[in-house]
Amino acid sequence: MLPDERELGHALGATRNVIREALALLRDEGLIVRRRGIGTRVVTAKYGHGLERLTGLAETLVDHGTVTNEVRAAPGLAPPPQAGTQPQRRLRRAGAR
């Protein structure tokens, strides 16, 4: 259950109108249910893929099959120059000529 509009407004430093608009948006998204005289409650989590915990990509996708990282070279592109082979350029200071 969420606190009532007055408590939320006080805690967040917002007017009741702003709180009502925000709650209406959350209701329209299906994230909360509001019932007059009963209150506002959060709907059961929609996303069952562990957003409440920090995991890596491979751990997150473990139920989706094998994860393979593959690097492919784009045809027609020259490799980047090696470090130190580019001519050095001098930077001018602002206002200098």
Description:
This protein has 97 residues and is of the alpha+beta class. Helix content is 26%, strand content 8%. The chain is built from three helices and two strands; from the N terminus they run H-H-E-E-H. It has helices at residues 5-12, 16-28, 57-60; strands at 32-35, 39-42. A two-stranded antiparallel sheet has the order 1-2. Strand 1 (32-35) and strand 2 form a beta hairpin. Helix 1 packs across helix 2 (16-28). The model has no long low-confidence stretch (mean pLDDT 78).
> Helical element count?
3
Apparent shape: elongated
Rg for CA atoms: 27 Å
Main β-sheet: number of strands, strand sense, barrel status? 2 strands, antiparallel
Quick recap:
By secondary structure, the chain is an alpha+beta fold.
List the helices and strands and how they pair.
Blueprint: H1 5-12, H2 16-28, E1 32-35, E2 39-42, H3 57-60
Antiparallel strand pairs: 1-2
Helix pairs in contact: 1-2
